[in-house]
């Protein structure tokens, strides 16, 4: 299949390629553009690779502000958000980065500033900083690790900042706009700069500043507050010095203070259910207890107020799309018959997957993502500030760089030194699943689950790169360099996952007896979690959990160009890399702990019904211990009415925890149950036999939180462990160039890239630092590419392009697995292989002759990826939910062997097209007017590796009209002219904050009749849609003076 398909594809693509020439650059310009993508200045058309550049004038006119805007103007780049604002990703040529390290390096003046998030899969907040004083943006595609370093797995984006001017100059720019939707949000931006030489020509400076304020285009339907905006300011100082004819120095300092509201994302309600494959039951991965479900559902004891069925139905009404119930009413769902949604009927069937005791189905969202006008932002308020939104993020970042270059007649030596320091706080409701409820009071949100993302992070980077290039007249030229790069990331989490819901019962599987509520059968109960979460936040502050990473990298690189005959050059590039990654994170005193350092189960557990927080406090209760190494039962089963330490559990405490802080471990043990007799200092009152009475001398409970300096273990106690990984690899590239004429350059290239393995810290919050869950292997890729840059009709027509084949092995992909506590967690798996066949073309045309009294400029870019799929991707999993989403499970012992082979690569579009048309005509000798438009079209993209959900294709236009002179410009614009609200980006993951049910069942059958516990969970995978910016109408004004 593959070879025959490849022949057909190549015959069509190469035929057009030979006729026209192909490339990417949606920004190709007819005039000469000098770029530095090969560590030397050269005409863009002379660079034998897929490269594009955007000038300062284009950046200002198009309103490019960040990397999301850059991706919009490049057909081979897509920018996505997921989970939180630090979870940002750039897809390059169909390849989306599943883990934090991006597939494209990010550089500022040649210095690598790429990073990755800690507790999400994205590129961190450093990826999407606001642009200040940018002279040029360069985008280069394909593996570029030799030239651009450790992160240029499939490309690089480089910002070239402005130098100091040779003469005094200053400028000012103002941008004002308003969105054309019900929010009517205003956006303001002001930029000012001044530059001049000082001390004669020996030293020059440039000072730039920017300020912005975006009100937020949408409103949170829960709080009524604006969302999706932000404000901040940035300043940059550049000093340039030229010493003699050969030595040049550049120092730059940049500072950014940036605050952003939470992203405008909407929960996608589930619209169907998927069956758990039979293979999952055969492997023992999935279980079902239908008799128990019947017992719990039908309320056999006729207990007053036992609203189990109604609670299940209410939950489904919140989670499921109306179409789900419409299909049931129409008889289109075979799982539901007459009376199956009547909570008082014996025929009642638990909707939205059937509850936690029978893993037969799971709710999912499938099909096309609805447009934004059909969705609503319903994010939970921050419980610590009832009724108010989460903060979003608050970032303060500075960068220092120093570039020194010595240029001799035939060689250049250059040193690049960089330092980045970033501090940020990020807070967000990650599931965006909130609903107004009178039971929530001032908290507004009646959700019984929550996942409050609350992180504080400090990132420091140091980079030192030094290299030499030659510019000899002979056939040989070379580059040789070395890089040292170090990053320290310290992350402290206050995140809380709260589940104020659950189903917990004693039952007897032999006699068929279900114990009533007074004998510990709560059925399914729930209550708003926000007040519990607010109270728990005070405990969480006492000990923030770490998730730290230290990355040390050094590499040696070089290149050799050999013109073996006239106009034919053979080039070789390569980089040898050594990288060590150390990570730190929590491990639990109880390895099977549920929920991790931030897991809060305030009710619905230990066979108690959920009740409101006020009622819970009025009963004299407080949070139960998450860590409970105690028992009130003697070995013979006798109830002691007292507690003593459970030695079997104490023996599971990791030795490392005792070594790090024995006193803290002992305190976690002594804190014990909260209703025990204690001394005045809070220590337990021990009696003979090593037991502690359940109540104090007066028969009253002693509340541990009331004792100064002593708090019970509201969250699972933990200590810190570390993991380390070292990787060495070589990344080569070979290229053959043919200069067919002064205006034609063709090339063929082969390269091998490698993204090193490491550790994903996605799961540390729920399962601790676990090598089995966290570690993943290196991702490797081999790329073949043919390309060409051509100019025609006296350089008025430029046609550039490339065709390429990308062969991945061990591709890093995001899947789901069960953690230590039985919860569904995100996990990085290495796929066997994946392939991408693609082509890119850019056409730029500036006709010489005038039409309608003016000059025209037209550009067209198109990226086509006809094949982008997993060719061999099989994983082993213990998750029935994962098997259901993949729709297959082959039993392999006690595991599911799940295949994604043949699935399309996530977040990759088959077609992406950009267009640009400009018409300009002169009004006077010094003043011109123009009108121009951008056109963007993109085909649908699958959201995840299951291909169950996809974003729709979209067509979008921008329109600008303005008047300009050499000194000033006035521009009016409409972005998203047709107000297209197709969703472009979708996130998601395990539904901790929307859909989790913990189900505990204790079967008292057996001989002797000692309870046997089984804990099951119902936790679907959820998705949220990021709403696209609505139509905005605005104006930009700029004025400059000086500069000759």
Tell me what you see in this structure.
- With 1044 residues, the chain is mainly β.
- It has 2 domains: 2-267 and 376-492 and 542-578 and 720-991 and 1025-1042, Maltoporin, Chain A (Beta Barrel); 587-719, no CATH class.
- It is built from 16 helices and 59 strands.
- It has a 22-stranded antiparallel barrel.
- A hairpin with a 2-residue loop joins strand 47 (890-892) and strand 48.
- The longest helix is centred in the first third of the chain and has 19 residues, at 2-20.
Search tags:
Maltoporin, Chain A; 1044 residues; mainly beta; 2 domains; 22-stranded antiparallel barrel; disordered N terminus; 59 strands; 5-stranded mixed beta sheet
Number of domains: 2
Proportion of residues in extended strands:
over 45%
Give the helix proportion (percent range).
Answer: 10-25%
Distance between the termini: 64 Å
Q: How many strands appear in the DSSP assignment?
A: 59
What structural category do the secondary elements indicate?
Answer: mainly beta
Rg, alpha carbons: 31 Å
Poorly predicted regions are 1-29, 516-520, 703-712, 1008-1013
* CATH homology superfamily name of the largest domain: TonB-dependent receptor, beta-barrel domain
Largest sheet: 22 strands, antiparallel, barrel
CATH class of the largest domain: Mainly Beta
What is the residue-mean pLDDT, rounded to a whole number? 83
Count of helical segments? 16
Name the CATH architecture of the largest domain: Beta Barrel
